[in-house]
Design brief:
39% of the residues lie in helices and 15% in strands. With 357 residues, it is of the alpha/beta class. The strands form two sheets. Strands 3-2-1-4-5-6 form a six-stranded parallel β-sheet. Strands 9-8-7-10-11-12 form a six-stranded parallel β-sheet. Helix 11 links the parallel strand 11 and strand 12. The longest helix is centred in the first third of the chain and has 17 residues.
Length: 357
C-alpha cells in the first residue's frame, strides 16, 4: 500500500481492451467500490469494451478511440482537462495506453511492477504495484486495488446486463427449446487459437445426446460465421446459430441463462465467468493458469505445457511466466476425448441429473 494514501476521493482507471481483460478489471473495480464506497471512479476504456460495460454501477466511462490516431489523444485530453485525480491506475502496458496516460492528470500514477512494466510503462508512472509470482491476469489487476489499501477477496461481479436483454435471451431460447442450454463460442480473435470444426461438432452431438440444446455464439466477422457454418455442417444435431445476431449485452444475457460454455481463449469465456456460468476452456497457445476462466480452471483442456516445453526445450517452471507457444495448428493437440472428460466432470459437479448411466 502507498504510505500516505487511504481512500482516494476520485480515481481514474486506464484499461482500454480487451473484452476478457475488462471483465477481469470489473472484479477489481467492484472490490474497490465495496471498500471505498465514496470514491468516484472514472474509467478510460475502448469503444467496443464500453458497449459491454455501459451502465456499470457508479462508474463514469470516458471512451478512447484508438482508431482516431492523434485526434483520439486530443479528444481524451479535452474531455479530462478539468479533472485532476488522486490516483490513476495505469493497467495496460501497451504504448498507446501509456501515451493516453499523459492526457490524464493525477497526483499518483500506479503501474505494473518493473518485471511487467513492458513497453516503457514505468516511464509514465510514479508508483508500482507489488511484484507477484506467476499471477493470473485477474490477480495481477487485484494488485492495483491492494496498492491503494483495498484487501484481497474472492472476485465478485455485478454486470450491467439489463432486464430487456435477459428477457430477450430467455424468450429466444425458450422458443427454441425447454432443454438446458450449452453454449459453444468457438472463435477467438486469432484463427490459430480456434479448435477444429469437427471437434466442436462432435462435442455438440455429445451434448445433444446428454439432453442439452446446443447454441453457437460469436461476433459478425466472416471468420466466425464460416466456422459456425462448418460446425453445423459436420454436426448431426439441431444447433441454434446466434453468430452475428447478438450485441455484447445480449450475448452476456445468453451466457447468463445458459448452463455451460465451451470456448477457446476468447472474450465470451470470461464474460461467462462474470455471470456464474461454468466454462470448459480450450488452450494451446497461452498458459491457462494465467489467462484461463478464473473460477473454472478445473475444467480447462490444455496442451499448452507440453507444446511450450517441446518448443523451448525447457521445463515450464524454467520459462518466463506467460510465454506463448507458436504455431497455427497447435489446437489440433486437443482431442474430443479430453473435452468429453472435462464436460463430464463439469456436468457431474453442476448438473448430475444429465449424466447418462
Amino acid at each position: 500500500m502507498l504510505g500516505q494514501l487511504t481512500a482516494p476521493k476520485n480515481l481514474c482507471l486506464l484499461r482500454l481492451s480487451a473484452i476478457g481483460d475488462v471483465c477481469h478489471a470489473v472484479a477489481m473495480v467492484q472490490q474497490i467500490q465495496r471498500y471505498y464506497p465514496k470514491t468516484k471512479i472514472t474509467w478510460v476504456i475502448g469503444k467496443v469494451e464500453a458497449n459491454l460495460l455501459q451502465g456499470l454501477p457508479s462508474v463514469e466511462f470516458v471512451i478512447f478511440d484508438k482508431k482516431a490516431g492523434f485526434k483520439g489523444y486530443q479528444n481524451l485530453r479535452a474531455e479530462l482537462s478539468h479533472q485532476k485525480f488522486d490516483v490513476l491506475l495505469h493497467m495496460q502496458v501497451a504504448l498507446r495506453a501509456s501515451l493516453a496516460s499523459w492526457c490524464i492528470k493525477a497526483k499518483v500514477k500506479i503501474g505494473f511492477d518493473s518485471k511487467r512494466a513492458k513497453e516503457g510503462q514505468w516511464l509514465f508512472t510514479n508508483h508500482q504495484i507489488a511484484p507477484q509470482h506467476q499471477p493470473h491476469v485477474l490477480d495481477g489487476f487485484m494488485g492495483f486495488a491492494k496498492a491503494i489499501g483495498v484487501p484481497t477477496e474472492s472476485p465478485r461481479w455485478e454486470m450491467p446486463i439489463g432486464d430487456e436483454n435477459e428477457l430477450w435471451a430467455s424468450e429466444l431460447l425458450s422458443v427454441e427449446s425447454n432443454k438446458p442450454i450449452a453454449i459453444i463460442s468457438p472463435a477467438a480473435s486469432k484463427a490459430e487459437r480456434n479448435w477444429h470444426a469437427e471437434g466442436y461438432a462432435q462435442t455438440a452431438d455429445y451434448l445433444t445426446q446428454l439432453g442439452f440444446q446446443v447454441v453457437i455464439c460469436g461476433g459478425p466477422t466472416t471468420l466466425e460465421k464460416l466456422l459456425a457454418t462448418e460446425i453445423i455442417s459436420f454436426s448431426k444435431s439441431h444447433i441454434v446459430n446466434l453468430v452475428g445476431k447478438t450485441n455484447l449485452k445480449q450475448l452476456l444475457a445468453v451466457l447468463k441463462i445458459s448452463h455451460l460454455v465451451i470456448a477457446p481463449d476468447t472474450g465470451p469465456a470470461h464474460m461467462a465467468v462474470t455471470v456464474g456460468t461454468p466454462v470448459v476452456g480450450l488452450y494451446a497457445h497461452s498458459n491457462p493458469n494465467r489467462t484461463g476462466p478464473y473460477l473454472y480452471q478445473n475444467y480447462v483442456v490444455s496442451c499448452y505445457q507440453h507444446t511450450v516445453q517441446e518448443q523451448y526445450k525447457q521445463k515450464l517452471e524454467h520459462l518466463p511466466w506467460g510465454i506463448r507457444a507458436k504455431g497455427s495448428d497447435l489446437m489440433n493437440g486437443i482431442t474430443f476425448t479430453q473435452v468429453k472428460e472435462k464436460l463430464l466432470l463439469l456436468i457431474k459437479d453442476y448438473y448430475p441429473e444429465f449424466i447418462i448411466k
